[in-house]
User: Fold this.
Amino acid sequence: MDNEFFQRGKEAAEKLLYFVKKSGADDAIVSLLSRESSQVKFSNSRISNNMLYQSSSLSVFASFGKRIVSTSVKTFDNRAIRKGADFLSKFAACVEPNPNYMGIAEGPFTYRKDSSLFDLRVEKLGDRIVDYAEEGISRASTGRVKRVAGNAEASTERTYLITSNSVKCEDKSTALYLSLRAIIDKDDSAHMVAVSRNIQGFDVSGCAEQAASLANMNVPVEKISPGKYDIIFYPLPFAVMLDLTANACSIFDVESGFSFLEKKLGRRVSSNNFTLIDNASKEYGFGSGLSDDEGVPTQKNVLIDRGILKTYLHNTSTARRYKTRTTASAGLIAPQAANIILSKGNYSLDEMIRSVRRGIIVTNTWYTRFQNYRTGEFSTLPRDKALVVENGKIKCATRGIRIADSMPNLLSKVSAIGKDSRQILSWEVEVPVDTPPVLVKGINITRPN
Amino acid sequence: MKQSLLDSVEYAIKYLEKFSSYAEARLESSDSSGFMMKNGLLEASSQDSYHGAGFRFIIGKSLGFFSTDNLAKKNIKKLAEKSIRATKKAARLAEPISLGDEKRYSAKYDVKDREKISDFSPDRKVSLLKEINSALSKSAAERYFSIHDCVTEKYFINTSGSRIFSRIPRISFYYNFSVLSGGKSSQRSWMYGASAGYEILRKWNLPETLSRESEALLKNLAKGVRPPRGKVDVVCAPEIVAIMVHESAGHPGEADRVLGREAAQAGESFMTPAMLNTRIGSDLVNIADDPTIPGSYGYYLYDDEGVKARKRMLIQGGMINEFLQNRETASFLGVQSNGAARAVNYSVEPIVRMANTYFVPGKQKEEELIESVKLGVYMKNFMEWNIDDVRLNQKYVGAEAYLIKNGRIVAPVVKPVIETTTPALYSSVSGVADNLEFHSGTCGKGEPMQAIPVWFGGPTVKLSKMEVLPKAARRF
Assistant:
């Protein structure tokens, strides 16, 4: 990453904050984000494209008498910065105040030192990302696996955040990501992901071999009847459920009608073995960072403690309105989770399987959609390998089914939680989730006639 | 577009030409604004702009791509060198690529916006949101709206000599609201979008449209009955038909999915090249995709590979007729590209995408279709839907829906569910009305995710003998 360019961006950020304050802003947050990543996309066991992305953005959020506005500045030169600041105050004069806006955090803050989020070897990786793609393809091409598809990516991100309330936070992180699908045919495949902040933790071989092993599981395929089944969710599909649950904890979602957790604070929302945490201060967390979007040092938030909803996610403004403390979850408009963790249980996957009389192992899902965000009614489609369990044993695979239930019902029927966790980021999981496999009893399955 | 930016991409192409058999650049500059209102309060107002360029090139038989928003020539050269090194290294396992032969074009086109986005002041946008909020506040307990506009200028250049300039203004409006009655709730999420100026607001008539929808949902909550049991006729209004054709005709007809290139992302397709010219539905089924529809949300005249856009007949007379192609898939399958390569912005590679997919209208009237039903359901709009990753198994759950008895709409119906497969769906089409409507969406595909503007549309369509409430779904 170009250090000189980033330093120029920092100077531009300082000037932008100065001019925005000078133009009359009560609160202002200026953030600089620079990102560089390399990505190798592969399909049919061949590399199909080799991509390099570089981007920088300088943006500002400001309040002028509770009139909330934001803009971005394209270049770092003085003219663009003055123009951006001038524009913002004129823009604010055109919009309405939001009486619900209660300000931003008061700094300064002291940030922890976290060397776990950055690995110089990732920043200097260069074209060696190609080697990871090759390793993944090679390791997954075993047994009946005919094709391997996926994506390997390495990225470095630098951020600089300053505010009118004496906040100054500079952060630097690296990320490695592999998404790999081992394909036997269109109806028989397995998908795994691997994520890491550093080279040491990036288990490409393990990810590829697990996908291949699951894909190679050669069991007959049978059609199953609609009805209630116990579902063993692998980490990949359960991460989707946890991402949705953490989203529903945002006070913004609650107020907007996008949450099934409205009016549930202090009440039971899941089975008592279920503890959900958002912890962006966790070492090596794929969503971890030093601060939230207003510069508040990240912290551990227990969202659901043994089944009881303990808090919604807040930024400073929403917290003041609800007379509580920020959870360091800004989003300046909508508070949001950053690094979701389901507390581990005591079960091995085999123990879960043995405990199921009539169930399905779901290894991936796709296209999760709500009928009603308030009630949490949703459906989602198992994708890749789905295995039918009868009397504690895997009997066959199945296809063409749909999970159609509600989030409150699903959370209340979590029966067993695995002891081995995995960090997940995937196509349908936008906020990183750390979860073991989970057994949920009596979930509704449908299929077209 | 600034001359210095144009110079930078010309420089880049000349540089890449030294090392590659083909190179192209997409320079893009965009100005946008967004306003969001929640329960009557203005939560966010933003105005942004960006510029940047994406470069694609072929070395040997390998494809490389890089993008940046720092268009200093020194930076571009540095990135190009890095990208060339990685692409050369990847050659040992690269899929041999050919982009086929394409014509070169010199073209310039834009969308005429009568009420220009730049002239439509922030306070007018806020007033619109307030007006919509006011229209809905009596019937809807929770109200979330956002309006977004952008004007995007693009300059495409390649080593074959094409030079294409475009300017497209786009406006979109997204909403979600909840109605509550007797301890029950119902929700509606939808959007409007167009390539146009703010004159489009008169056509959308948002306060009245949303108000009517919320009143209908309230009535459904209060008076809705269960859908009829067993297999009945379902009359699907244009909004339902629109999402159906997008999901189960457009997506499976994307040639990159057919060939497995999106296998680890958006998935593959049940369709294969061998299925071209085979039957998938009744002979009433005609489905097209056309980027050139004036004012459409997915509008363009040249795609992001510089190929001239044209209407594509995906399904004709019930037969699979044509896939959506980019240059790479077309070359692989031995046909010409039909101009379906799109990138959401300069920073990502163009991939095969829909533009404006629609069920071609027939000659019947919607009323005739309803009158022909003895017992059935009329589905006006929907909330939940999904489809599997090969685009066979799909579900649509009605939000506003009605019971039809003896050819007449008699009562609201609660959440009728269509859960079917693509061949079963298209084989059940027994009537097609003439009331073509287009709806707007943001279609997701690719990695990084490319959420791209599209229209999808159709007229009212009658499906014969569909089950509308599988037993397992009755407990809702």
Q: What stands out?
A: The two ends of chain B are 54 Å apart (CA to CA). Chain B touches chain A through 95 residues (CB under 8 Å). The CA atoms of residues 280 and 423 of chain B lie 5 Å apart. The longest strand of chain B covers residues 41-59.
